[in-house]
Specification:
This protein has 349 residues and is α/β, with parallel strands linked by helices. It contains twelve helices and ten strands. A six-stranded parallel sheet has the order 1-8-5-4-2-3, with helices on both faces. Helix 1 links the parallel strand 2 and strand 3. Helix 5 packs across helix 7, helix 5 packs parallel to helix 9 and helix 9 packs antiparallel against helix 10. The protein binds nicotinamide-adenine-dinucleotide and glycine. Glycine binds next to loops.
Length: 349
């Protein structure tokens, strides 16, 4: 005997991303703003001048990637239970990508899922992490290995918050902006080449273009069955660099910048990109003081670490390589010897 459960429902999870000053908004429900002490100290007053709710709580978790873990998730969940949040209650993620990922994940599992809104405060989270519904946390096996796809109900991107962002964090966000342009939009890349993101108007335009690019990709492939993996350009190499340096030497975006340069070298070697195109990308990264080189101590071990990547199979590594500027390919059949040859350019002699 078989019992069939017909589940082919189309659920509309569409949402708006507002890039502007946060509008004054009242939520007729219980709301918890999840943040950390640094962001709260700098900007909670401003947020509270814009947002109000039937009942409003603040949940604070420690600042830092090392706290993107189960303890912080438990802190959030405990507070929701203490305040008797129900399925109509809502969370607001107020901070960088760490807060956004954890708040989204807590929202995805609390009573099997409640709504949340993203209010990202770093450039990286405004152009990338707050958009697309990837939520999660780290564990002792690695980064972002536990999580869920859970789309926010809305995203409010207010460039005002970026005024207090340290320049290194700003650069890390620029790396993700460059990523979107190189892989999906050559006009956008030309714009980045000619403009300076430290100018307020240019920055606002770049945030808009990056968000539109990512939104377009997510709309086509929400759960990363194909195209969305292209947003990991630079990450295959970057994750190995972060891993080798114990997540301490480079910010994520900085490691991605080096990773994009390495991916471009592979794209040049395999005839996908010209040397001049690779140089143009490197120059844009250098304009924002992003690192573009890394000395690999052990090439074989660097190669083996590729296999920890979520896109790798037991035998093959998938590389995300630009196809000129504005295009992308994801080959999984690049010969090991060829990869090692490219890595040799960075080897410690
Ligand atoms: P982060 O959240 O750690 O923020 C960086 C630092 O800036 C922190 O110390 C934070 O407190 C501080 N900060 C935040 N806003 C500030 C402001 N306005 N002024 C001054 N300081 C401020 O790091 P991040 O770069 O925003 O995000 C990285 C995280 O995002 C990683 O965990 C990564 O895995 C995740 N991520 C997720 C996605 C996704 O699609 N979900 C995409 C990219 C990255
Ligand atoms: N940051 C990559 C993604 O959202 O898919």
């Amino acid at each position: 005997m078989q019992v069939n459960i017909p589940l082919k429902k189309t659920i509309d999870n569409s949402y708006d991303i507002t890039i502007d000053t946060i509008p004054e908004t009242y939520f007729d429900t219980k709301v918890a703003i999840v943040t950390n002490p640094k962001v709260a100290g700098l900007h909670l007053g401003y947020l509270l001048s814009k947002i109000s709710a039937k009942e409003l709580y603040i949940i604070t978790v420690p600042d830092g990637e090392e706290y993107k873990n189960q303890d912080s998730i438990n802190t959030i969940l405990e507070s929701l239970f203490n305040h008797r949040f129900n399925r109509k209650s809502m969370l607001i993620a107020f901070g960088g990508g760490v807060i956004g990922d954890m708040t989204g994940y807590a929202a995805s599992i609390y009573q099997r899922g409640i709504d949340f809104v993203q209010i990202p405060t770093t450039l990286l989270s405004q152009v990338d992490a707050s958009v697309g519904g990837k939520t999660g946390m780290n564990n002792s096996y690695g980064k972002n290995l536990i999580g869920a796809f859970h789309q926010p109900k809305a995203v409010y991107i207010d460039p005002y918050f970026l005024k207090t962002l340290p320049s290194r964090e700003f650069g890390a966000g620029v790396a993700e902006v460059v990523k979107m342009a190189v892989t999906f939009n050559s006009d956008f890349f030309d714009y980045l080449e000619s403009a300076d993101l430290r100018d307020e108007k240019v920055l606002q335009e770049a945030i808009k273009q990056a968000v539109q690019t990512k939104a377009g990709v997510v709309a086509q492939d929400e759960k990363e069955h194909g195209l969305r993996a292209a947003l990991n350009y630079g990450h295959t190499f970057g994750h190995v660099i972060e891993n080798e340096t114990a997540y301490k030497k480079y910010l994520h975006g900085e490691a991605v910048a080096i990773g994009m340069v390495m991916a471009n070298e592979m794209a040049v070697t395999t005839g996908r990109m010209t040397e001049n195109e690779a140089l143009r990308v490197k120059r844009v990264l250098e304009k924002y003081a992003l690192p573009t080189s890394y000395k690999i101590a052990n090439i074989e071990s660097f190669y083996e670490t590729f296999f920890l990547d979520k896109k790798s199979s037991d035998t093959n590594v998938t590389f995300i390589l630009p196809l000129h500027i504005g295009g992308v390919e994801m080959p999984d059949d690049i010969d090991r010897e060829l990869v090692l040859k490219v890595l040799q350019n960075h080897g410690v002699s």
